[in-house]
Amino acid sequence: MSRPTILRVPPLSPQLHDAVGEQYDAVDLADLAEHAEDVVGIVCSNSGRVDGDLIAALPRLGVIANHGVGYDNIDVPAALERGIAVSNTPEVLDDAVAETAVALLLAVRRQVVPADRFVRAGRWLEEAFPLTGQVAGSRVGILGLGRIGRAVATRLEALGCTVSYHNRHRLPDVPYAYAASAAELAAGVDSLVVVVPGGAGTAALVDREVLDALGPDGVLVNVARGSVVDEPALVAALADGRLGGAGLDVYAEEPQVPAELIAMDTVVLLPHVASGTHPTRAAMRALTLDNLASWLADGTLRTPIPEMTTTGKDS
Ligand code: NDP
């Protein structure tokens, strides 16, 4: 019996790429012209674009299994219009991403990276390292108190921070103060952690007004998407000293990072690795493959994206 044909949209980890190849008749973008009529499923990661043209080129496409909780890489309206099922990988990455957000906040406030450079350069032999800020006792705002945001909040509470948040909807079940806007949240905290989804609804949500509200002693941590922060405004605020520092995992044009940021000692820069741990990536991979297998078996998904459950097209 012939196996289902699945399109692998790069970049995929070698493990996921190979697993799809072992379980299915796998097709890569380079071979698409020959096999477009056969493809019933796509496996992609959230760095691989699945746009309307690609979806339109695959007449039998029924499922898109995304390796990642964020799916702003997929033209979801185009998929749902055709009744194509879309899955993501929520929850299994919450701990790793929250850990990264906290690591960035600690690294920026305690100047971990400059202090490491100071020791390596032999400067400790001549002078003492300057005093730093601290996270304990500080006020931290979470922009996007969802699954990952809540995991960040509990870690910050354990560190002795006062947590507040802004979502579009106020939550009934959390002990944190609510701010009615991103700017209001930023104005009342020392540091802001951004963990909203990407896409059109949050583009440049963190703009000059929010950065100025955070202020010259403020620290911005972004583990969400580069699109959520107005990057030129961020660079300007840091360069002018209107913002104290930043810890960034994501950027507007990855893997390009603005040269101005690379030259600054007040920022810590990670290469989009917030979920990049061995156990988390194994769990994300397993959930991606489970979603695909489940849809192929009976038309259901383990973890459909929320738009599917709200439109009722969950098959
Ligand atoms: P959730 O959907 O659980 O949480 C998202 C939160 O953002 C919700 O509380 C939502 O509340 C809020 N939100 C959404 N839109 C807005 C808006 N316009 N203004 C204010 N708040 C908003 O998602 P997760 O916590 O699972 O993931 C969040 C994002 O983190 C992902 O979409 C992904 O982009 C990013 N991420 C990044 C990773 C990395 O490697 N750096 C790894 C994993 C995730 P409400 O609906 O009430 O507004």
UniProtKB/TrEMBL annotation:
It comes from the Bacteria. PROSITE patterns: D_2_HYDROXYACID_DH_1 (PS00065). Residues 22-304 form the D-isomer specific 2-hydroxyacid dehydrogenase catalytic domain. Pfam families: 2-Hacid_dh, 2-Hacid_dh_C. Keywords: NAD, Oxidoreductase. Residues 102-274 form the D-isomer specific 2-hydroxyacid dehydrogenase NAD-binding domain. PANTHER family: 2-HYDROXYACID DEHYDROGENASE YGL185C-RELATED, 2-HYDROXYACID DEHYDROGENASE-RELATED. Belongs to the D-isomer specific 2-hydroxyacid dehydrogenase family. This is 2-hydroxyacid dehydrogenase. It comes from Nocardioides humi.
